[in-house]
Specification:
Blueprint (H helix, E strand, L loop, with lengths): L26 H9 L11 H8 L5 E5 L5 H14 L8 E5 L2 H15 L9 E3 H11 L11 E3 L1 H14 L9 H13 L9 H4 L7 H14 L2 E3 H14 L1 H10 L2 E4 L7 H11 L5 E5 L13 H5 L1 H4 L4 E5 L7 H11 L20 E8 H17 L7 E5 L5 H11 L3 E3 L9 H14 L4 H7 L9 H14 L3 H9 L6 H23 L2 H11 L2 H7 L5 H15 L5 H10 L12 E5 H4 L4 E6 L10 H24 L1 E15 L2 E4 L4 H4 L6 E4 L9 H17 L2 H10 L14 H14 L11 E4 L3 E9 L2 E6 L3 E6 L3 E3 L1
Parallel strand pairs: 1-7, 1-8, 2-3, 2-6, 4-5, 6-7, 9-14, 9-16, 10-12, 10-13, 11-12, 13-14
Antiparallel strand pairs: 14-15, 17-18, 17-21, 18-19, 19-20
Helix pairs in contact: 2-3, 3-4, 5-10, 6-7, 6-9, 10-11, 10-12, 15-28, 16-17, 18-19, 20-21, 21-22, 22-23
The chain binds a DNA duplex through helix 5, helix 10, helix 20, helix 27 and helix 28.
Length: 791
DNA sequence: TCGCGCCCTGTTTTT
DNA sequence: CAGGGCGCGA
């Protein structure tokens, strides 16, 4: 792509400086366009695409159906703004949802306008841009600029602590659930004080809002932000500091948003605040591909765009460049069953191609066999396996397909499996590095203080915690103080002293050693690598390999902090693409991708549409499932193959399943039902009944299991177990309450005191908060006063 | 304090 | 079926 004909915009003074952005296409702009040779990047765009690219001023909604060149429009638009000198790259805010999308955009812009894209500091995900803004003004929201970003794991551990401290049974009220509740509030930019009474009841008998508040306070103490905060706290920053907001409104002359249908309320508010300055916001999306409602996305955002941004233009991209006519017609017909959509008519000029096939199988194993067989045939015809994908509704479906592929020796790759940074060893290593960078990172310290095993346990941690909470200091600092006392047992004390000394040394080396070396040193000297080397389990080697990979990827960053940030926000499993492998992934993970051939197994009621989506979201859930189906079909360029099985194993039990209602919604003229020869060879119905009978009889032997299975089937809602509370629990809880609420006054020599661990004793001397106490049974000990109460 | 084994639960999708 | 949590025994 030649692009030498336009000047880098750095030399031009962007005209918008002097001309308020009002006229859609100013005279000077038109003159500038006329003056330059036909812009090569504009050629090849169809008229609608071109309109989407060239309508620069004012709000614009681009409704881009599947395969209509959405990314191309976005990137060309940015290139256009830059190439015409309308704005500097640094004045364009371009947000995406995934890092992959951001990366791809950067690359494509780079190809269009040369290296200028490197100078686009504000192209990234909502979260990364939010972080960037937040770091600059952290003190305004009660954080320091080096705040840590908590992942889900940290989040849950933190919530668990809070629940425990509040004596809330985390069995009945799992921290995980509270995390979801809080997340859903953050998705809607609801702060603790704005939680409605009704919603507060969604957890722990109405204490949810209170817990949320404590959680937020705790985050501030820890100098940490969770994913939701990266947006919500930015919104708060903007709202409470109009000058800061104004600054960004000025800066961002042009705002572009990818996948607008996936934005949640918080993201919408965030965007609206920023767009209020210049009103140049261009959102690209497809309401038919909104599939993240469950995590707070609001289709409404895109449906209401024209209302939210008055005077907005709308461009529809309806020319599909990806799929054959049969595939397109099938998808369009299916999605037409949804109400409440903006409506698009996708068209293609390609030849009709093959019809979409629908294939039934006796059970899920046979379904997997059919997929395997079809792919083997394609392979022997010379098809490129990297152009074949199996798209499933839930990851649990992958296993059977994988098993089959392994048997056949078909190369495959699973996309979107556990992420690199979610692996145990990576998290541990990261925790070490986090502690080195910030000794106040309690969650990290807690994670690794006994990894590898050092003989420190829960008892020790509790002591450390109790002191830390009392003194209001981070764990490591608390530990330092405790080392001066006899609060801890000698062995633990020595161990902790060593550990702290290590961290002190590593922290000092932060200045002197290159960060990659430091990371290696830390992992080495902490005994962490040794731990895995000594491990005889089969995956230990892989873990060591991952650790090496971690250190290797460190090289790409200037220092540890920037690396840590990258990992928490961006890091993905290294995927070696481009070799010929079949891709297996969830439908969600498939959005934005395309393949020649797509297999869509598991189109059965309950699985797809997913029962839970139906139960929880009703009709909205059904429509989202249908959109998911639409996304699935439209991934295919040439061949889409829908499949269902009559029996599927769920939790290890075989269940009879009915074909998905979506299958009946497909247009007969564009699909064909293929007979699977082996489908009924097992005897169909009779076998089905037999199976069910066998299932029940077989299980009678296993009474608890059978009872559970029986309870499982009809029970979809909340099973309130009758009299589920254990009588003994309350007493214990009450005891803890009494203990933690005891007053902690200051003591003087001669006072009779009681220590939780050492029992009654007499104070001998005091030094600050350290007391020397002669215990009746345990002898003379130095302890801190927070562990002691008057006897 | 650690490690083992039992039991229970839940299993959509994720920045 | 699997992963996590908890209780028990060493």
């Amino acid at each position: 792509m030649p692009h030498s004909h336009f000047d880098p915009p750095y030399n031009d003074s962007p005209s918008a400086d002097s001309a308020p952005a009002s006229s859609p296409l100013s005279l000077s702009e038109r003159a500038r366009q006329a003056a330059r040779p036909a812009d090569s990047y504009l050629t090849g765009l169809n008229p609608e695409q071109r309109r989407a690219v060239e309508t620069i001023e004012g709000p614009l909604l681009v409704l881009a159906g599947a395969g209509t060149g959405k990314t191309r429009v976005l990137t060309t638009r940015i290139a256009h703004i830059i190439a015409t000198g309308t704005a500097f790259p640094s004045q364009i805010l371009a947000v995406t949802f995934t890092n992959k999308a951001a990366r791809e955009m950067k690359e494509r812009i780079g190809r269009l306008v040369g290296s200028v894209a490197e100078g686009m500091p504000w192209l990234g995900t909502f979260h990364s841009i939010g972080t960037k803004i937040l770091r600059r003004h952290a003190e305004l929201v009660g954080l320091r600029s080096d705040f840590t970003i908590l992942d889900t794991d940290d989040q849950i551990r933190l919530l668990k602590q809070i629940l425990r401290a509040e004596n809330i049974d985390d069995k009945r009220w799992p921290a995980r659930q509270l995390a979801n509740v809080i997340d859903s509030w953050k998705n809607r930019a609801i702060t603790p004080d704005r939680v409605s009474a009704g919603e507060a009841h969604s957890f722990a008998q109405g204490r949810a809002a209170e817990l949320y508040k404590m959680y937020q306070e705790r985050l501030k103490v820890l100098n940490a932000a969770d994913f939701g905060d990266l947006l919500v706290e930015t919104i708060r920053l903007f709202r409470e500091n109009p000058d800061v907001l104004a600054n960004y409104q000025q800066r961002f002359r042009y705002i572009l948003v990818d996948e607008y249908q996936d934005t949640n309320v918080a993201q919408y508010l965030w965007l609206r605040l920023l767009a209020q300055g210049r009103h140049n916001i261009c959102c690209v999306g497809d309401d038919d591909q909104s599939i993240y409602g469950w995590r707070g996305a609001e289709v409404d955002n895109i449906l209401r765009f024209e209302h939210d941004f008055p005077g907005a233009g709308v461009v529809r991209l309806e020319r599909n460049y990806r799929s054959t006519a049969h595939i397109l017609a099938t998808a369009s017909h299916l999605i037409a069953h949804n109400e409440g959509r903006l409506g698009k008519t996708l068209r293609t000029e390609d030849d009709p191609g093959q019809r979409v096939t629908i294939t039934g199988a006796w059970d899920s194993e046979e379904e997997a066999r059919q997929i395997g067989e079809a792919i083997e045939n394609a392979q022997s015809r010379g098809d490129d396996l990297s152009q074949v994908a199996v798209l499933v509704r839930i990851s649990a479906q992958m296993r059977e397909v994988e098993d089959r592929f392994v048997q056949l020796g078909l190369p495959y790759r699973v996309i979107g499996g556990p992420r690199f940074y979610e692996r145990l060893e990576i998290r541990d290593a990261m925790a070490y590095l986090r502690c080195v960078v910030s000794q106040a990172d309690d969650l990290a310290f807690e994670r690794i203080f006994n990894t590898p095993k050092r003989g420190l346990g829960d008892a020790t941690l509790q002591t450390m915690h109790a002191y830390a909470r009392h003194a209001g200091v981070p764990l490591m600092q608390a530990t330092r103080a405790l080392l001066e006392t006899e609060e801890l047992k000698p062995r633990q004390r020595t161990t902790l002293r060593d550990l702290i000394a290590n961290f002190d040394r590593w922290s000092r080396q932060l200045e002197t050693l290159p960060h990659t070396e430091l990371a290696e040193t830390v992992l080495e000297e902490s005994g962490y690598t040794a731990m895995w080397q000594a491990d005889r389990s089969p995956d230990a080697a892989g873990r060591l390999e991952n650790l090496k990979e971690l250190v290797r990827s460190l090289e790409e960053f200037p220092d540890l902090p920037s690396f840590l940030e990258h990992v928490s926000l961006v890091m993905e499993a290294a995927e070696s693409d481009s070799d010929a492998r079949v891709s297996i992934m969830t439908l969600h993970a498939a959005k934005g991708l395309e393949f020649d051939t797509v297999f869509l197994p598991g189109w059965e009621e309950g699985l797809f549409p997913n029962q839970r989506a139906l139960d929880e979201q009703g009709r909205a859930g059904l429509e989202e499932e249908r959109r998911l189906a639409y996304v699935g079909i439209t991934r295919a360029r040439k061949s889409a193959r829908i499949m269902f099985a009559s029996n599927r194993r769920i939790h290890g039990l075989w269940n009879a399943t009915a074909p998905s209602r979506f299958i009946d919604e497909l247009p007969e003229a564009h699909v064909e039902v293929t007979e699977a020869p082996a489908a009924y060879s097992y005897g169909g119905y009779a076998r089905n009944r037999f199976d069910q009978a066998a299932g029940s009889f077989g299980s009678t032997y296993d009474t608890p299991g059978w009872t559970r299975a029986r309870q499982n089937t009809p029970n979809t809602g909340h099973a309130t177990s009758p009299g589920g509370r254990r009588g003994g629990n309350r007493v214990i809880e009450g005891e803890i309450v009494a203990r933690s609420s005891g007053p902690s006054s200051t003591f003087k020599p001669g006072d009779r005191v009681f220590h939780q661990k050492f029992g009654p004793g007499t104070v001998e001397s005091c030094e600050g908060n350290k007391l020397a106490i002669e215990f009746d049974k345990a002898g003379r000990k130095t302890v801190v006063d927070s562990f002691v109460k008057p006897a």
